[in-house]
Write a structure and sequence with these properties.
2 copies of one chain form a homodimer. The first copy, chain A, is an alpha/beta fold. Chain A folds into 2 domains: 115 residues, Nucleoside phosphorylase domain (Rossmann fold, 3-Layer(aba) Sandwich); 170 residues, 3-Layer(aba) Sandwich (Rossmann fold). Helices cover 29% and strands 23% of the residues of chain A. The first copy, chain A, is built from 7 helices and 12 strands. In chain A, the strands form 3 sheets. Chain A has a 5-stranded mixed barrel with strand order 6-11-10-7-12, surrounded by 4 helices. In chain A, strand 1 and strand 2 form a beta hairpin. The radius of gyration of chain A is 20 Å and the shape is globular. Chains A, B: Belongs to the PNP/UDP phosphorylase family. Chains A, B: It comes from Bactrocera dorsalis. Chains A, B: InterPro entries: Nucleoside_phosphorylase_d (IPR000845), Nucleoside_phosphorylase_sf (IPR035994), Uridine_phosphorylase_euk (IPR010059). Chains A, B: This is Uridine phosphorylase 1.
Chain lengths: 314, 314
């Protein structure tokens, strides 16, 4: 059993086995299952007509909180001029599962992924199976989020062009049946450029491209001094942050390595666009007002909307 | 800098520095901060009177979803016969932060932790600082959750007496400033026995004590065959599950190693009690009805309520 090199016929998006018509999944067992129930989404192949419900999906947008994703779906609905039938409104498609919240705005789905790599991992496994079962055509996956900035002021929009783990490798190390299976944390370079291209000097904020460091914790894992535990000093922290900056890191968050590794493994076009809510070179605590933070968090959504409109020709 | 051995004066709950009057936190920087804003809880030392709000807290209960924790708080309120003022109801104490939901039922707080170690990590750092700032006296931390069972039928209640990581060690490996810092995943042995002692043969369900395996993923990380990716066979999976069972593992979930490592590091009395929603030796998919799953998930809460009533002398 060679875990690092999948043995099923579905290794590439261009050449794949009949078991995997979309090319997204790499799991020969799925085709042999009577039913595939996506437990955390509350959707299944027997209980729902997934191609009918989701076959038109072109953009899968994931982000932290349910409220933010609901607002995003409403915003995008308006931006792409998609009209809902009179007397209807968006409703949570996963309501019954009580784990994630998913909204569908025409060809766009917006789902919250919670916090951290394991939480987004569950969601992505089920979303990748969802676009597979629904037979979606070339869906683009984008994570919209917040992050700590490194040498960029709060409010800066950061587009990731790669993700580093704690060993400073461009890999996520999966632990599978007692083995460590590294997978590359690659993002689509063209998509990063396309997202950057829709930024404008008149935006009133800066948009930059750079590397993202992915941590498994907000406090000690990001070198903060203000967690419940801290056994290092300000100078140790600054040495580490400066070292990251020298490696090209411009932001730190908690979901990018899993997002990049899973979407890349599925052969999906994927990107990450985040708003920095603090410049970590200046401090640890998030001290901006709720209003300011709210305005900053809308910035990635503005670029996203322009990108989607351009893709749809709206 | 010796990261594995904290150098601040707050190493023990009996002997600690004046900087850390409660003994829970291990961070000399906190006492020097003007304000400590617990960002993901939306609570701060300057904006809120934390001793007044939370000084009476004796039990801190954490669990997966917001809805389940709200229902738990209402249930416990009734169980401990705590009356709210006429015309009032419980409300989410972290509503403004939009990350976690926290409810207070007399001396009990119930907070959802989302899914996975990183998500519960953020919450625990902030809860440990909260009980510190609020000057709580010997609060007991308990995680209530769901899990995959190993050799026990769905519906079994599992009380953890230790947590193993992917290397089968009783440690959680923290990644801090480029170093790997292992911390023991110890739970309170007396608390496990106290929780077991309130189970009764007439419960209509089995309650067992055993080791918990903590994974960072629901699919490949737990040896499931039904994720978006799977490069192993049924026989590989069964070999791994059987090996875990031989090591004393009775359940698998995704938050225990962080929960045990952080509460132990804080010198807190802590325990984990979960309902198994599937016997992994029989399959991967969660196929029970929502009603059955709902009833199973209430079982740990029943034991918890008895334990708390006994402690409070209700």
């Amino acid at each position: 059993m060679d875990l690092a090199s999948p043995s099923c016929g579905c290794m590439s998006t261009t050449e794949h086995s009949p078991e995997c018509p979309t090319g997204f999944i790499r799991n020969p067992h799925i085709a042999r299952m009577d039913e595939d129930f996506l437990y955390h989404l509350g959707l299944g192949t027997k209980t729902h007509n997934l191609p009918e419900m989701f076959g038109d999906v072109k953009f899968v947008i994931v982000g932290g909180t349910p409220k933010r994703m609901e607002n995003l779906a409403k915003y995008l609905l308006n931006e792409i001029k998609h009209k809902l039938p009179v007397g209807t409104q968006l409703s949570d498609l996963t309501g019954a599962a009580d784990r994630y919240s998913m909204y569908k705005a025409g060809p766009i789905i917006c789902v919250n992924h919670g916090m951290g790599n394991p939480s987004i991992s569950i969601l992505l496994h089920e979303l990748i199976k969802l676009v597979h079962h629904a037979k979606c055509k070339n869906p683009v996956f984008i994570r919209l989020g917040t992050c700590g900035g490194l040498g960029v002021p709060g409010g800066t929009v950061v587009i990731s062009d790669g993700v580093l783990n704690d060993k400073l490798n461009g890999e996520h190390e999966f632990k599978i049946l007692g083995n460590v299976v590294p997978r590359p944390t690659k993002l689509d370079a063209n998509l990063a450029q396309e997202l950057k291209a829709v930024a404008s000097p008149s935006d009133g904020f800066q948009t930059v491209i750079g590397k993202t460091y992915c941590a498994d914790d907000f406090y000690e894992g990001q070198g903060r001094l203000d967690g419940a535990f801290c056994d290092y000093q300000e100078a140790d922290k600054m040495r580490w942050l400066n070292m990251l900056q020298q490696r090209g890191v411009v932001n730190i968050e908690m979901e990018s390595s899993m997002f990049a590794a899973l979407t890349h493994n599925a052969g999906l076009k994927a990107g990450i666009i985040c708003a920095a809510i603090v410049n970590r070179l200046n401090g640890d605590q998030i001290t901006e007002t709720k209003e300011t933070l709210g305005e900053w968090q809308e910035r990635p959504a503005k670029l996203l909307a322009r990108y989607i409109r351009r893709q749809l020709g709206v």
